[in-house]
From TrEMBL:
One of its GO terms (molecular function) is ribose-5-phosphate isomerase activity. NCBIfam families: PRK00702.1, rpiA. GO terms for biological process: D-ribose metabolic process; pentose-phosphate shunt, non-oxidative branch. It is an enzyme of class 5 (isomerase). Keywords: Isomerase. Pathway: Carbohydrate degradation; pentose phosphate pathway; D-ribose 5-phosphate from D-ribulose 5-phosphate (non-oxidative stage): step 1/1. Belongs to the ribose 5-phosphate isomerase family. It comes from Paxillus rubicundulus Ve08.2h10. Residues 1-30 are annotated as: Disordered. SUPFAM superfamilies: D-ribose-5-phosphate isomerase (RpiA), lid domain (SSF75445), NagB/RpiA/CoA transferase-like (SSF100950). This is Ribose-5-phosphate isomerase. InterPro entries: NagB/RpiA_transferase-like, Ribose5P_isomerase_type_A. PANTHER family: RIBOSE-5-PHOSPHATE ISOMERASE. GO terms for cellular component: cytoplasm.
Length: 285
């Protein structure tokens, strides 16, 4: 599949649920669909990230979680059955597992494939150095394993997630997965030792009691000050030292690039070039 160039008009079939068969679809400019502006920007970021990073030689592909990732899978499906028949897709949780199955893609797991060619995932926020907060959907343990397993780890998001410092727009705090029997002690340590005074157990919305992750664990959301979040690696390391913590939703120095769909139909790309992050804009009218 040819890569889009800066300024190129991207055209694509009108989106439909990936599992829904249909006649040959008309080609419509990406930004002229019936999706809301936010959904359009998510889709734009996802499509360009797939076009730029998922090549025919990539056979083991990690699929992240969240509301942007369905567009990643949609674009992968558009690469065609011939390319996808020899590929294996590794999910980061229940949602992406269902997505892979319903898209008729081959499902695998990271214990069979501990080395992944490319993982593409969403993010709750991404900072200037490509550090990010993940775990707004409680999937960050598996997501981090798949990010580490990947030769290339790519983030996709809409423009609201593109920030200077983590914790700017995503305010619930750092998601922390903890083993259930240790949650009260971890909370106490967060409040009194690490100074996250409002850290709280994440409660379920349509169930009495706490959110339970795909791994059977609880989630704590722990806010930290702007000053502390300017050094997310240090925050992550201190949380990770607390006994009972399984994983922290701060991904530091892991992503090679992040794609943000903008409201004007362009995509902002931040990518590592050596040890520097460079930024460019791709226009997809
Ligand atoms: O646990 C959830 C994941 O880290 C998601 O990738 C993250 O919350 C972003 O999701 P969305 O694309 O829906 O904003």
């Amino acid at each position: 599949m040819p890569l889009p160039h800066v300024g190129e008009v991207l055209t694509t079939p009108v989106p439909r649920p990936v599992s829904m068969p249909g006649p040959t679809e008309p080609t419509t400019p990406l930004t002229m669909s019936k999706l809301s502006p936010i959904e359009q920007s998510k889709r734009l970021a996802a499509y360009i990230a797939v076009d730029k990073h998922i090549f025919p030689e990539h056979k083991i592909i990690g699929i992240g979680s969240g509301s942007t990732v369905p567009y990643v899978v949609e674009r992968i499906v558009q690469q065609g059955k011939e390319l996808n028949k020899d590929r294996v897709f590794i999910p980061t949780g229940f949602q992406s597992k269902e997505l892979i199955i319903s898209s008729n893609l081959n499902l695998g797991d990271v214990d069979q494939f501990p080395t992944i060619d490319v993982t593409i995932d969403g993010a709750d926020e991404v900072d200037l150095e490509l550090n990010c907060i993940k775990g707004g959907g409680a999937c960050h343990l598996r997501e981090k394993v798949l990010a580490e397993a990947a030769k290339t780890f790519i983030l996709v998001a809409d423009y609201r997630k593109n920030v200077e410092y983590l914790g700017t727009a995503f305010t619930p705090g750092v998601p922390i997965e903890v083993v259930p029997f240790a949650y009260a002690k971890v909370l106490q340590n967060l409040h009194h030792v690490l100074g996250s005074r409002t850290a709280a157990l994440r409660m379920a919305k349509a169930k009495a009691g706490p959110v339970v992750s795909d791994n059977g664990n609880f989630i704590i959301d722990a806010p930290f000050s702007r000053e502390e979040m300017m050094n997310p690696y240090s925050v992550m390391a201190r949380i990770k030292m607390l006994t009972g913590v399984v994983e922290v939703g701060l991904f530091c120095h892991m992503a090679q690039a992040a794609y943000f769909g903008n409201q004007d139909g362009s995509v902002t790309v931040k990518r590592m070039e050596g040890s520097q992050v460079v930024e460019e804009h791709i226009t997809a009218p």
